[in-house]
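A quick aside before the break. I want you to see a complete sequence-to-structure record at least once, exactly as it would be stored in a machine-readable document. Don't worry about memorizing anything.
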Amino acid sequence: SVAIDGRVTYNFLNSGAFGAYVGAGAGYELNIGGFDSDDTGTDADDDAGLFAGALVGAEYSLFGGLGVFVEGGADYYFTEPTEGAQILPTVSAGVVYRF
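That is the input. The structure line, written in tokens, reads:
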């Protein structure tokens, strides 16, 4: 699948090297694989749809503009992307560089 989304974040805590933020956004996901993954042969177009989500995260600056982050969130799909699931949670971690 291919997803296009945008998020707006607000940094509510910036204490030296540590920061915390919240965010919200929306997007669109499209399954371009042709068929559902359950091998029923049904068209995957029913997996496409609009979604909105929110997140909360924390960031720690190691040195200079380099840091690490971890965030968790959930997306609500207005059309069901999988069999019955409408709210999909996510957890992300990674490296951030600010210049």
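Two observations worth writing down. Strands lie at 2-15, 18-30, 49-63, 66-77, 87-97. The chain is about 0% helix and 65% strand. We'll return to this after the break.
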